[in-house]
Design a protein that fits this description.
Distance between the termini: 32 Å
Helix content: 55-70%
Strand content: 5-15%
Order of helices and strands: EHEHHEHHHHHEHEHHHHH
Radius of gyration: 22 Å
Bound molecules: tryptophan
Length: 332
């Protein structure tokens, strides 16, 4: 039997190529060897996105984005968190086993409190209970589906560890393995994708290249990459150039070697390097963009795909909730 991998995708913005190399590609790779369960964590996004149109658009775009990038809904169980009511029953069940002190230590909550302290505000200003209990909902997402491994970025490891703690507290109390205890799988080897300004590509820096940008916009963004003032004739160090570092993510080994040689030889200006970059990025992203646009043009089909995922997911979820009820003495 294959092990189970599960991850949640928070629909908080437009997908960019940092997400593609940092999360989407590795998760799709993992889905080859694991029984994969990937979902849109829309109730997690609700903590920060209160505009209904914005949230609805994000959910759709992120779901379409993963499908366009190659997620096969026949192989991966792909669903929306909000379509699985068992998630919220398990959340309540887990609440009784989650100490408040554990939540006080969660990085995201602590950062919000610290922010307030620096501004001289009330410690809890702007902190809703969704933020405070975020790790419990995430633990429920994970534990509900008997997950063995949870592929996440480093920032989410603490949350997976909290899910472990909570599952163990339940099992310890009832003296049986009611819930499976998950493990985090951090992808250490994942490349850091440089952004337009040379810092790590991140939505919070506003330096991203959207994954599905129309061709014209893609070209414009690439031409806007910040470079130094080295002239055309000067030899250049490829590894010190974010144009080249981005190029490496999209180019074949031969292409990489050949562009590196042109950098070192001198006689090539930044404009040319950017043209080369645009060519390989567009080559990889064009088919994705076309699939994305086709999926976005047929919302009914997208909804149907997600509903089929829900049909597969709910029996698994129901079994976990039932196991808990039985162990807890809340069985009918
Ligand atoms: N908290 C995760 C993030 O911000 C998203 C998420 C929600 C998640 N539930 C999850 C990730 C369960 C892994 C497993 O990226």
């Amino acid at each position: 039997m294959k092990k189970i991998a599960l991850t949640g995708i928070k629909p908080t913005g437009t997908l960019h190529i940092g997400n593609y190399f940092g999360a989407i590609k590795p998760a799709l790779e993992l889905a080859k060897d694991y029984d994969a369960r990937y979902f849109i964590a829309d109730y997690h996004a609700l903590n920060t996105i209160k505009d209904p149109k914005e949230l609805a658009v994000n959910i759709r775009q992120v779901a379409a984005g993963w499908l366009a990038a190659g997620l096969d809904p026949e192989k991966v169980i792909f669903y929306r968190q909000s379509s699985i009511p068992e998630t919220f029953e398990l959340t309540t069940q887990l609440m009784a086993f989650t100490s408040k002190g554990l939540m006080n230590r969660a990085h995201a909550y602590k950062a919000a409190v610290q922010d307030n302290a620096e501004k001289g505000d009330d410690p809890d200003a702007g902190v809703n209970m969704g933020l405070f209990t975020y790790p419990v909902l995430m633990a429920a997402d994970i534990i509900l589906f008997d997950s063995d491994v949870v592929p996440v970025g480093k920032d989410q490891v603490q949350h997976v560890e909290m899910a472990q703690d909570i599952a163990q507290a339940v099992n310890f109390n009832y003296k049986q393995e009611v819930l499976k205890v998950p493990q985090a799988a951090v992808q250490e080897s994942v490349a850091v994708v440089p952004g337009l300004d040379g810092r790590k590509m991140s939505k919070s820096y506003g330096n991203t290249i959207p994954l599905f940008a129309p061709e014209k916009e893609l070209r414009k963004l690439i031409m806007r990459i910040v470079t130094n003032s080295q002239g055309v004739e000067e030899p250049k160090d490829p590894e010190a150039s974010q144009i080249y570092l981005l190029y490496k993510l999209f180019a074949t080994a031969e292409e990489q070697a050949s562009l590196a040689a042109r950098y070192r030889a001198g006689g090539m200006g930044w404009g040319t390097a950017k043209e080369e970059l645009f060519r390989v990025v567009n080559r990889e992203l064009s088919p994705l963009r076309e699939r994305f646009e086709a999926i976005m043009a047929d919302p009914a089909a997208l909804d149907a795909t997600l509903e089929r995922g829900v049909e597969k997911a709910r029996p698994i979820a129901a079994a976990t909730v039932r196991r808990f009820r039985k162990a807890a003495g809340i069985d009918r």
